[in-house]
C-alpha cells in the first residue's frame, strides 16, 4: 500500500477517488513514493476502552490544524455515543478531491496525558496512560507490523480541561516550563524513537491551515489486563532498558518507608522506623523533587518498599526481582488500593495492611469516605508486617546468605 503519491500519480488517476498528497515531509517519517493510487476512503471502528470508556480506530483519516477536528471521508455515521470521538472531535465528509497532507503517518496514538499540573499523579500517569499505550506499541513490535526504529508512528498526547468533555488546547504541559518534569520525562521514555506531536496550539500554530494524515489513528487507550504478568513485567523491563538502569540487587535486606507530605500521612513514622531498626536497615524516602530516572534507579537499592496508599507506591514496580511491596490503607478508606494491589502483586511479592482501629484514624473534616485520613500505624502490627516481608522472596534469600556468611 502506498503512503505517498507523486503529483503525476494524482493527475493520472482516473479512479474518481481522492488521494493523499504529501506536500511537505520531514526526513525519517517512513514515507515512500509509489505508482499505485491509494484511496483515502475512511473507516471507523470502536470497542470498549480503558480511558475514555471506548477505544476508536480511524482508518485513513486526517486532522485539520485550524479547526482541530479529525475528518473521515465516509458516508457512514460515527458510532454514538462514543466518548473518544466527542473528546477528540471527529466528523465525516464526503469528498473526491485530493487531500494535501503536511505529514502522513502509518499509525497515530491520540490519548490523554495525566500530569501533576493537570491535577493528576504518577499512579494515573502509569495506570491510565503509559501502560495502555505501551501495550499497543508492544503489540506492533511483537507482530512485526512496522519497524520501530523510525518515525512511522506518532504519539499525540492531549490534556483535558474538563474530564472526558473538553481538551485544553492552551495547556503549557508540553512547553519548556514542564519539559524536564517527572511526567514529561516519563512520557519521553515511552515515546522513544517515535514522532511526538502534542495536541496543543503551540504544536499546530506553525502550520495553521495544514492537515496531518494517518493510515490509522487510535483515539483513547485500550482496555488492559493489569494482571497480565507478561505485560506488566515487560513494561518494567522496557522502562529500565530505556532509562539504561541495570537490574541490580541489594546485598542485604534494606527497607524504604515512603514519606508523604500532604494527605494520608503516617503520623508516627519515626516510631515505626525505630521499632524495626534491629531487624534491617530502614530509611525514610521522599520522592519530591526527584526525576523519573532518579526515582526508578533509587528503587533498585531496596528489598522492601512500604507506604500508605498513594502515587509513590507506583515506584514499587521497579524494585529488584523478588523484593516486597507493602501497601498501608487507612481505616475503612474507599480508595483505589485494589488497583495498586493488582499491579504490585503481578510484579512480585506483595503485602497489604488495613487500619482496623478507628481510634488510630484521623479524618479530614468532610471526608466521609476516609480517603484523605491520616493514620497512626499500630507498632506491633507494623513489626509483624516487616518480619513477614523479611522472610519473603528476595529477603528470604538475603537472610540465608547472611547466616551462611556468619
UniProtKB/TrEMBL annotation:
Presence of keyword RNA-binding: no
GO molecular function, one term: glycosyltransferase activity
Domain Glycosyltransferase 61 catalytic: 230-324
InterPro entries membership: Glyco_transf_61_cat, Glycosyltransferase_61
Pfam families the record matches: Glyco_transf_61 (PF04577)
Record key words, sorted: Glycoprotein, Glycosyltransferase, Transferase
PANTHER family: GLYCOSYLTRANSFERASE
Stated name of the protein: Glycosyltransferase 61 catalytic domain-containing protein
Organism, as annotated: Trichoplax adhaerens (Trichoplax reptans)
Amino acid at each position: 500500500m502506498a503512503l505517498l503519491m507523486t503529483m503525476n500519480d494524482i493527475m493520472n488517476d482516473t479512479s474518481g477517488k481522492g488521494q493523499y498528497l504529501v506536500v511537505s515531509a520531514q526526513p525519517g517519517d517512513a514515507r515512500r513514493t509509489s505508482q499505485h493510487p491509494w484511496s483515502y476512503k475512511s473507516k471507523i471502528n470502536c470497542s470498549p476502552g480503558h480511558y475514555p470508556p471506548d477505544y476508536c480506530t480511524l482508518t485513513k483519516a486526517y486532522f485539520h490544524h485550524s479547526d482541530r477536528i479529525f475528518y473521515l471521508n465516509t458516508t457512514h455515521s460515527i458510532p454514538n455515543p462514543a466518548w473518544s470521538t466527542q473528546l477528540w472531535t471527529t466528523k465525516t465528509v464526503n469528498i473526491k478531491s485530493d487531500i494535501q497532507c503536511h505529514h502522513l503517518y502509518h499509525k497515530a496514538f491520540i490519548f490523554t496525558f495525566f500530569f501533576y499540573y493537570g491535577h493528576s499523579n504518577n499512579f494515573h500517569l502509569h495506570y491510565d496512560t503509559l501502560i495502555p499505550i505501551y501495550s499497543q506499541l508492544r503489540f506492533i513490535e511483537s507482530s512485526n507490523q512496522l519497524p520501530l526504529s523510525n518515525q512511522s508512528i506518532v504519539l499525540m498526547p492531549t490534556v483535558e480541561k474538563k474530564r472526558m468533555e473538553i481538551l485544553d488546547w492552551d495547556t503549557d504541559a508540553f512547553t519548556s516550563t514542564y519539559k524536564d518534569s517527572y511526567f514529561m520525562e516519563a512520557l519521553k521514555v515511552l515515546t522513544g524513537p517515535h514522532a511526538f506531536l502534542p495536541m496543543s496550539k503551540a504544536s499546530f500554530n506553525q502550520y495553521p491551515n495544514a492537515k496531518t494524515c494517518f493510515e490509522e489513528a487510535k483515539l483513547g487507550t485500550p482496555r488492559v489486563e493489569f494482571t497480565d504478568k507478561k505485560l506488566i513485567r515487560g513494561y518494567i523491563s522496557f522502562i529500565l532498558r530505556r532509562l539504561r538502569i541495570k537490574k541490580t540487587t541489594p546485598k542485604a535486606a534494606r527497607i524504604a518507608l515512603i514519606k508523604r507530605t500532604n494527605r494520608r500521612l503516617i503520623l508516627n513514622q519515626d516510631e515505626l522506623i525505630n521499632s524495626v531498626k534491629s531487624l534491617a536497615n530502614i530509611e525514610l524516602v521522599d520522592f519530591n523533587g526527584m526525576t523519573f530516572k532518579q526515582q526508578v534507579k533509587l528503587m533498585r537499592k531496596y528489598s522492601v518498599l512500604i507506604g500508605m496508599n498513594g502515587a509513590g507506591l507506583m515506584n514499587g514496580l521497579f524494585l529488584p526481582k523478588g523484593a516486597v511491596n507493602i501497601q498501608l490503607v487507612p481505616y475503612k478508606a474507599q480508595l483505589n488500593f485494589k488497583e495498586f494491589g493488582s499491579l504490585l502483586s503481578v510484579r512480585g511479592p506483595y503485602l497489604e495492611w488495613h487500619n482496623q482501629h478507628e481510634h488510630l484514624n484521623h479524618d479530614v473534616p468532610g471526608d466521609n469516605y476516609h480517603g484523605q485520613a491520616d493514620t497512626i500505624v499500630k507498632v506491633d502490627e507494623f513489626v509483624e508486617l516487616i518480619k513477614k516481608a523479611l522472610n519473603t522472596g528476595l529477603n528470604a534469600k538475603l537472610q540465608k546468605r547472611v547466616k551462611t556468611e556468619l
